[in-house]
């Protein structure tokens, strides 16, 4: 609106929570009287301090769960951050959580407890959501140049312009602090072990540029919970959680190979490496080997923890589910690959229920 004293008009432009005043005469701020320049400087400063909340919602990410509450109920200004953390794709934190809960249940069996520690399970749940979000945010910051060139990922918040890299870095710190707060609730050995997990987390985003096995490094990071659940109970590690961890790595390579088949054409164009491109038409054979190794290693871990029939039944039923994935997979059907990838949430439940039921049965008949 024009100023009341009849001086050249200034128009107010609302930008997020910040406000900028623009001279209607089109003159640069430096050519205006000092008082007017101070207005521009002061209001621009306000906008700089509110940039974290100044986002742009350009719509859901391509492979998100359709009509998720993030995209339908969350305030528009917060949606880009929720998408950075992948809240509308919860399968990621489930896959990070399962090794934690498996290990907690296996530790309960070994310790003679009738149920995994509920407090530990809650902490692992919160930690998995926070650190999966932090990991995805970090990955998006590192991969923004690649994501912009890949059909499935160019709608992610940073390449789509929903948030800036600076905003993403602030959000990364917030999520990491939540994860740290969770970690500090455990014993000192678990805290040190949790801090060590940052090494594979930090290097994973760069592996797709230099090796055909980035899924291996994802396995190092995503399966770390197999060590944490046991350490939280016993304050140390033994062979059982180590075998569970290695089995988790094999499982992760398998399901993420399926996931990577969605992007293999774009990955080839931009030079991104993956086991999907490495295995190619031999993917089914590779999955047989990887999933068989995972099942065998899980069974050995259960045996070392003195598990009973319920745990091995869970492993057997889980192996049947993995076999189903192998039989029906069509590596050229991106939609099916995504659905098979997401079905590993079911696999996680089957294994966990088997381990938890075994702990309960052992506790009843102890």
Provide an overview of this structure.
- The chain folds into two domains: 44 residues, no CATH class; 273 residues, Tetracycline Repressor, domain 2.
- 66% of the residues lie in helices and 3% in strands.
- A two-stranded antiparallel sheet has the order 1-2.
- The longest helix has 25 residues.
- Pathway: Cofactor biosynthesis; ubiquinone biosynthesis.
- Keywords: Cell inner membrane, Cell membrane, Magnesium, Membrane, Transferase, Transmembrane, Transmembrane helix, Ubiquinone biosynthesis.
How many H/I helical runs? 18
CATH superfamily caption of the largest domain: UbiA prenyltransferase
**What count of domains describes the coordinates?**
2
Backbone CA Rg? 25 Å
| Low-confidence sequence ranges | 1-50
Coarse structural class:
mainly alpha
Question: In total, how many beta strands?
Answer: 2
Quickly give the CATH architecture of the largest domain. Answer: Orthogonal Bundle
What's the end-to-end separation, in Å? 80 Å
| Helix content percent band | 55-70%
Membrane topology: Multi-pass membrane protein
Subcellular location: Cell inner membrane; Membrane
Pathway: Cofactor biosynthesis; ubiquinone biosynthesis
Pfam family, one: UbiA
């Amino acid at each position: 609106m024009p100023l009341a004293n009849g001086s050249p008009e200034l128009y107010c432009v609302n930008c997020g929570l910040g406000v900028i005043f623009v001279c209607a005469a089109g003159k640069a701020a430096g050519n205006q009287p000092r008082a007017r320049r101070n207005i521009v400087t002061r209001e621009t400063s306000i906008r700089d301090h509110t940039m974290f909340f100044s986002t742009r919602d350009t719509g859901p990410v391509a492979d998100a769960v359709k009509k998720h509450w993030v995209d339908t109920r969350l305030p528009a200004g917060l949606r880009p951050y929720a998408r950075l953390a992948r809240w509308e794709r919860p399968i990621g934190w489930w896959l990070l959580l399962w090794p934690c809960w498996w290990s907690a249940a296996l530790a309960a069996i070994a310790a003679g407890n009738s149920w995994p520690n509920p407090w530990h399970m809650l902490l692992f749940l919160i930690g998995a959501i926070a650190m999966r979000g932090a990991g995805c945010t970090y990955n998006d910051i590192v991969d923004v140049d690649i994501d912009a060139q890949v059909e499935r990922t160019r709608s992610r918040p940073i390449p789509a312009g929903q948030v800036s890299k600076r905003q993403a870095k602030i959000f990364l710190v917030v999520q990491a602090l939540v994860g740290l707060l969770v970690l500090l609730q455990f014993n000192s050995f678990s805290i040190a072990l949790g801090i060590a997990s940052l090494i594979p987390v930090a290097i994973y985003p760069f592996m797709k540029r230099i090796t055909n096995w980035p899924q291996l490094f994802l396995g190092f990071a995503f399966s770390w919970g197999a060590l944490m659940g046991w350490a939280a109970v016993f304050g140390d590690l033994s062979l059982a959680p180590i075998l569970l961890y290695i089995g988790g790595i094999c499982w992760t390579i398998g399901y993420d190979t399926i996931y990577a088949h969605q992007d293999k054409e774009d990955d080839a164009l931009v030079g991104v490496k993956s086991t999907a491109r490495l295995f190619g038409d031999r993917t089914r054979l590779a999955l047989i080997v990887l999933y068989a190794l995972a099942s065998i290693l899980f069974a050995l871990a259960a045996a070392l923890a003195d598990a009973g029939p319920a745990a091995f039944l869970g492993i057997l039923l889980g192996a049947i589910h993995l076999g189903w994935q192998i039989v029906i997979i069509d590596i050229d059907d991106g939609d099916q690959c995504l659905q098979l990838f997401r079905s590993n949430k079911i696999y996680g439940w089957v294994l966990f229920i088997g381990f938890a039921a075994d702990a309960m049965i052992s506790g009843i008949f102890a």
